[in-house]
Amino acid sequence: MTSLAPTLQGFFTDRLINQRHASQHTIAAYRDTFRLLLGFAHTTTGRQPYQLEIADLDAHLITAFLTHLETERHNTARTRNARLAAIRSLFRYAALTHPQDAAVIQRVLAIPQKRFEKQTVSFLEPAEVDALIAAPDRTTWIGRRDHTMLIVAIQTGLRVSELTRLDRHDIVLGVGPNLTCHGKGRKQRCTPLTTQTVAVLRVWLKENAGQPDDPLFPTRTGGRLSRDAVEDRVAKHAAGARHHCPTLATKTVTPHVLRHTTAMALLRAGVDCAVIAMWLGHEDIEATQAYLHADMTIKERALARTTPPHTTPGRYHPPDKLLAFLEGL
């Protein structure tokens, strides 16, 4: 067996699972990266994956693989950078046990991330939020579930993975009502609930009695909603809401857009960016800065506080023809 195979196995079992306690989502993303990379290396070198050495995955091959992702698989620069981050993580791990390949490893680690244009954050205005929340048919059980789920998502700003993992015991509706979720990076955080959200949750929990460990938003059979299912429900209700709010026709509404909507509502209410970052479970406060660029009303308020330059509007008047002749001499 070559040096690459045991190194790759140790990277997953020792580094990701035992040391970093990586989530299943992270492990799956890294797994997919190396499945693609090994397949590309097999096509390029003619060697089976188990025959590959670390030295075979040099900077030239890795760069060609990244180009392949963009040109043939039509991946975005963001996806390309995520694949490169996984490869870098493996090579940093390999550097500890394979000093003989240090030169190859360093050249791979020196491959830069690709710069790309960042799009403005998309979010919903208050009228669009009202139309979306009103879209589910509350005469049906699924409609009442979706109505409650949308209200919780928009008020708390939970990620879709956090929303689907909510259990009944994660909700506290007594004094100091709040919601507890297990977020990204295995971090637990509590989010306060508004009076309206509490009222809707009380009705929903009373209608759907169950055990504390049961999902808060179950499927018809009592199972847990998948990420795709939530995205499908949000898209369905957004399509229905467009009949009452035409501005929604210009927006792609996803669960993550609802998360952005929460952040923008807090920002417009004057909440500090540090508090918003804590509310959303951001690792770094800089991740919250994107919302400052997205809201035109904040920029307009800032402009209103400035003093305009002392200038008067006027049209251009050409100089007198005789003077122009003299100046041209």
What report would you give on this structure?
The chain is mostly helical and 329 residues long. The protein has 2 domains: 4-109, DNA polymerase, domain 1 (Orthogonal Bundle); 126-301, Intergrase catalytic core (hpI Integrase, Chain A), CATH 1.10.443.10. The protein is built from 15 helices and 3 strands. The protein has helices at 4-19, 24-45, 59-71, 77-97, 102-109, 126-134, 141-156, 160-164, 195-207, 227-241, 255-268, 273-280, 290-294, 296-304, 321-327, and strands spanning 171-172, 178-182, 188-192. A 3-stranded antiparallel sheet has the order 1-2-3, with no helix packed on it. A hairpin with a 5-residue loop joins β1 and β2 (178-182). α4 runs antiparallel to α5. The longest helix is centred in the N-terminal third of the chain and has 22 residues, at 24-45. The chain is flat and about 85 Å long. The N and C termini lie far apart (88 Å). The model has no long low-confidence stretch (mean pLDDT 87).
Overview in brief:
This protein is mainly α and 329 residues long.
Number of helices: 15
How do the helices and strands follow one another from N- to C-terminus? HHHHHHHHEEEHHHHHHH
The chain-level mean pLDDT equals 87
Could you tell me the number of beta strands?
Answer: 3
CATH domain class of the largest domain: Mainly Alpha
Helix content: 55-70%
What's the N-to-C terminus distance? Answer: 88 Å
The CATH architecture term of the largest domain is: Orthogonal Bundle
Global structural class: mainly alpha
In CATH, the topology of the largest domain is named hpI Integrase, Chain A
Number of domains: 2
CATH superfamily of the largest domain: Intergrase catalytic core
Poorly predicted runs of 5 or more residues: none
Strand order of the largest sheet: 1-2-3
* Shape annotation: flat
Percent of residues in beta strands: under 5%
Q: Give the biggest beta sheet.
A: 3 strands, antiparallel
Whole-angstrom Rg = 27 Å
